[in-house]
Amino acid sequence: MSDRDELGAVMIGAREIYDELVALRGDVRSLTQTHEAVTQTLADHESRLRGLERWRYALPLAAVTSLGTLIAALVKAAGA
């Protein structure tokens, strides 16, 4: 008994192959659109994170500068 006999009388025609190919093409288009949407969302999140990181590192410098200005103003007020 060969492998062909074990499958029985299975016939796949050109129409079945074409229908599956059309369905596969639709699936690929859907995945492409999803990929583009995910890529745009990722780029948006990346830019937001970079903005937050800039503020995070700039904040201590601003606090030190304002503290120095406050001390200078207090020294000037105490000396005057």
Q: What percent of residues adopt helix (DSSP H or I)?
A: over 70%
DSSP strand (E) fraction?
under 5%
Main pleated-sheet profile = none
Mean pLDDT across the residues is 88
Order of helices and strands: HH
Task: Give the count of structural domains.
Answer: 1
Question: Can you tell me the residue ranges where pLDDT is under 50 for at least 5 consecutive residues?
Answer: none
- How many strands? 0
State the shape: rod-shaped
| Estimated radius of gyration | 34 Å
**Class per helix and strand makeup:** mainly alpha
Briefly characterize the structure.
The chain is an all-alpha fold. It has helices at residues 3-7, 14-79.
Describe this structure in words.
- The structure is a single chain.
- The chain has 80 residues and is mostly helical.
- It has one domain.
- It has helices at 3-7, 14-79.
- It starts with a helix and ends with a helix.
- 0% of the residues are buried.
- The mean pLDDT is 88.
